[in-house]
Amino acid sequence: MKAIRLYDKEDIRIEDIPKPEIGNHEVLLRVKSAFVCGTDVRMYKNGKSGISPDNPRVMGHELAGVIEKTGSEVTHYKAGDRVSVAPNYGCGVCDFCVSGNSQLCSESEAIGISVDGGFAEYVRIPEPAVRQGNLMVLPENVSFEAGALAEPFSCVYNAYEKIGIYPGDRVLVIGAGPIGIMHAKIAVLAGAGQVYMNDLNTGRLEQAKERVPQIETLVTDDLPGEIDKITGGKGLDLVITAASVPVIQEMAFSLVGMNGRVMFFGGLPHGKSVVQLDTNEIHYKQLLISGTTRQSLRQYRKIIHLLSEGVLSADDIVTGHADGSEAESVLQAVIRGEGLKTSIRF
Ligand SMILES: [Zn+2]
Ligand SMILES: [Zn+2]
Fold this sequence. Notes:
This protein is of the alpha/beta class. Helices cover about 30% and strands about 25% of the residues. It folds into 2 domains: about 1-135 and about 315-345, Medium-chain alcohol dehydrogenases, catalytic domain (Quinone Oxidoreductase, Chain A, domain 1), CATH 3.90.180; about 155-290, Rossmann fold, CATH 3.40.50. The protein has helices at about 40-45, 95-100, 125-130, 145-165, 180-190, 200-210, 225-230, 245-255, 280-285, 295-310, 325-335; strands at about 1-10, 10-15, 25-35, 55-60, 60-70, 80-85, 90, 110, 120-125, 135, 170-175, 195-200, 215-220, 235-240, 255-265, 290, 320-325, 340-345. A hairpin with a 2-residue loop joins strand 1 (about 1-10) and strand 2. Helix 4 packs across helix 10. Bound molecules: zinc ion (2 copies). The site of one zinc ion has 6 residues, from helix 4.
């Protein structure tokens, strides 16, 4: 089968490799849609421990497809099922796993990161992922693309649950990429009074506004001054950073008002995550600060439910389709911030 494997930093290759063999408790999936995300970009730019020319890895952790074959002992799933794949699975036994947060398990693995993933014709779903319910059967009205985008969408939902968005909140999302748009969609859904969005790339802001008409886009060189003006000096209720830029994190505390909240969503580039923060702003403004990573299976299923109910949409975030052979150029386009999400399929 065809697959895209990462060998080392900036070394990905399209290859013909054997179709995966599955065990009795495993599932073989024919991939129908897979997307590149920021994590893939970091793996591509910096390499990843455990991945080397001797041990290349099929990338791709945002994926959906059709079950081709199930092992003889697999129950609950059958060939032909349309499924989305939550990539993170844990040991199943530790306190985090038992609490439903297998993504926080110290032994957690991730399809497309620590085991072979979805930038291939077929992917093997390992036994713990099959047993723990990482395969989500898609309702008929949820496309493969939307199913695959349930991965980043549920990461965003995790952030929403952690930091909260309340009726009437004034929310600012910094970063108008696909993740920023997902945050805006959920903020609108949660009843925010006003959702502002800022990005240096005005084209991206326009794309966001087309998809979430309720947002107000802010084009400014002086974000603190602009926020001060529109909130009458009160500051925002919530700032969500959806851009991996240290200076944005440094600025965030000054944009929120009393009892404000800040969500550091995007991780910062390796070596740049030490930033200067005025902690007196946390103290004197009683701020609540959080970050989140990945998602629980419950949150993943919640997003699929919301997509199926028509409460959230993801198909409008797909701006292109590409053959697997074009994956490296898709990666480069993500790095340049072009388009939103391109669905890859062999
Ligand atoms: Zn991702
Ligand atoms: Zn565990």
